[in-house]
Amino acid sequence: xxxxxxxxxxxxxxxxxxxxxxxxxxxxxxxxxxxxxxxxxxxxxxxxxxxxxxxxxxxxxxxxxxxxxxxxxxxxxxxxxxxxxxxxxxxxxxxxxxxxxxxxxxxxxxxxxxxxxxxxxxxxxxxxxxxxxxxxxxxxxxxxxxxxxxxxxxxxxxxxxxxxxxxxxxxxxx
Length: 174
Hints:
Number of helices: 2
Number of strands: 10
Shape: globular
Radius of gyration: 18 Å
Oligomer: single chain
């Protein structure tokens, strides 16, 4: 009996370790069309939580997206709760297989993204400036389209495989 119970616990544990795939959202609505949602003006409100769950930084982002064919430009202007400002400009390209790639001046290499249903998963490395030192931090970025105006974003951050914290954003299409 003990062996069966132990085996059941092990199977449950291993099943819990399997990760969510973007394809798990293929039937969710509304369907996310990145070229439509990230076209025009948006505003986002967000925060960074450390690994303990403490909110360390809040921010607002003004976004402007434009698309020409399968290539989009997304301009992001950040204003942080401490008054600091920063800017990121993404170039996003839709690939022939329906996936996306993205580049920006502080993205190391290329971001890779997949969409299914209402969800987008981006994976990329960002060169983060923290008090004058730059750290390459891996992002596992998930965006969920809630309706035609609202998208929620959760990003988990890792350095050397160690969980650092996460960023949560709420986008609103103007």
